Each structure stands twice: as C-alpha cells, then as structure tokens.
Amino acid sequence: MLRTVGSFFGGTLRDLSNSADQWRYDRATNSPAKDRALAAAVKEITPSFRQCRGCSDWMCQDQCWNEEIGQCLRCSPSVAEEISRAQASAQRDQIWDKAREKDWTSGLDVDTRAKVSCPGCGLKAEGGKFCQSCGTALALKVRCGGCGSESNKAGAMFCSDCGNRF
Q1: 116 DSSP assignment
Q2: What is this structure's pTM?
C-alpha cells in the first residue's frame, strides 16, 4: 500500500516506500545466524589456503600450491609435471609429423571428380567407383558420338570438346 501511495504522490512517500523495500531485502539475506555461519565457514577453510608471494593470489594448499618453493603452481610449476607436459606435447607433435610423412592418398582416385550422391539412386555415396546401394558408376563418363571425348558430365546436352548435340 505504501508503494502505491508513494508512486502516486512521489517525494517523501516514495522514498519511504523504497526504504521499506530495502530493509525487507536486507533482512531476508543478512541475518545474525547467517553471519555466524559464514564466519565459522571462513574460519574452518582459511588454513587450507595460502597467499602466493609471486602473484598475490590465494590458492588452495592441497591442489594449487608448490610446497617445495612456497608459491602457487602458476608461479612455480612442479618440475615433474612440467617435464610430463613437455613430453606429452613433444609426443603429440611427433605423431602429427609422422602422420604427415605417410602417404594417405596412395589408394585414392583423385583424377576422377568425387560425387557426393549417386547419380542413379540419389543416396549418399561413401566413395569408390560404384554406388554401394545400386551399383551405378559414380564417375559416369558420357562418350561423345562425334569426337569420342569422355570428358562430358552426365546430363550434358552438348559435348564440351566439339559442341556436338547428344
């Protein structure tokens, strides 16, 4: 009701309405019991964290702290972990290098234009020279009766070499 009256008349009544809303919000989120519970939780967890002298960030002692150096693992990484990461990275690079050296295209016909779908049945072609569903040749060669050229595409009406009509 105070909010409604405040919106009509403005001024002091509106300010009073806003203050009442703010008090209700604060009361719902900040209670002495919650403050005590938060303080107890902070007190309990504080010994598990350390402040790094290198970056000034707070880090958990169990997972993120280099005890030997006395800094966080970002500022002073574990030597064994760094060696392991470097070895894994080098191994990954060597795998890629070896894969690049191998000829992965020796058995592929790269001279014939690949078809995405079969010209006979229209299903997706998985590669090869013939459709696995209907047996239609995936690289159809249309032979020109005039010049004998086989470079024409299926469905062409004229020869691309001599212009003869099919």
Answers
A1: S
A2: 0.37
